[in-house]
């Protein structure tokens, strides 16, 4: 297979598409999948003269025809913009006054100079000739085997002080765990994702707003540091979380949702180091997780919490089960996060009869017991989620102070 590389102006490629010399959708290609916002971001990149990945083209000299091997979605988006299917989005971050002036304009409405510049922008093409049967298809398969970036990996490219703060917290979590697995690794910046959501939750005042990837991207872009108090709270909470994990020899595994909830729970309550509840936190966390899983076995050194596990499995079953339910579906919805937090607080308040230190959300121990009893009733009710979330609102749940 012979491979040639050349740069072509957008106008040249558009002409070939419209004259049917360049086939955007040969039979091995998938259909159109890009959303309009994604197409607008590509046009924004073109207008800024940013890097656009090269287009791979299979050349059939016998038929005097070319087919797109890789880059169909990019060329289709450019062609649709050329045909006035959608306008420029001048508000795409980061802000640029030159692009902002074009906001809402279709291709045909662009100033003559801008339109001319757009047409002359070069796109690299890699052309395949003299190939054996099956070689282009194999190359297409290999090109599309590359893994897509996660949202956290994409945010990592947004250099700035907020990103650096989150990376430091993530490294602290990773370093303190060392060879201790919590059920998932940081190989795809999973820890960064959890801790960035935690930082933004604390910054906006609690759990009542869904933390979306867009919110996090915008926060990374604004170049403002997270308040030092927030960073300190996260750091201390990570330390207590990892200390609790290391003190338990049972093989507890967390996912991103439960890791977020536990670290937020620690951060929200902020016990002093000498607080009796804080001293027993590792015992509580291990018992809760073992009780809700129903499968983990205790090691010999963990026999001291066996009775607590049995009590949780018998008496706190509705809370542990509801926590699990909310950790496997719609895990990032505000309602799911709030209910998980409510379950942890109610169970902790019930758990510490001798050394109970008032958790911020409960005015009295009786409130926790009433919530626990209410959850028993709600667990048998088809509308339990709605009613529990409604009760959480009455309690003023979700605020961070």
Say how many strands there are. Answer: 5
**Strand residue content:** 5-15%
Ends apart, CA distance between termini: 64 Å
Shape: elongated
Written account of the structure:
A hairpin with a 4-residue loop joins strand 3 (55-60) and strand 4 (65-70). This protein folds into two domains: 2-146, no CATH class; 152-394, no CATH class. The chain has 19 helices and five strands. It has helices at 10-18, 36-47, 72-82, 97-100, 112-120, 135-143, 151-155, 161-177, 190-204, 213-221, 228-247, 256-269, 276-279, 281-293, 306-315, 317-325, 334-351, 365-379, 384-394, and strands at residues 2-9, 22-23, 55-60, 65-70, 122-129. 33% of the residues are buried. The chain has a five-stranded mixed sheet. The model is unreliable at 353-358 (pLDDT under 50). It starts with a strand and ends in a 7-residue tail after the last helix. The longest helix is centred in the middle third of the chain and has 20 residues, at 228-247. With 401 residues, it is α/β, with parallel strands linked by helices. Helices cover 53% and strands 7% of the residues.
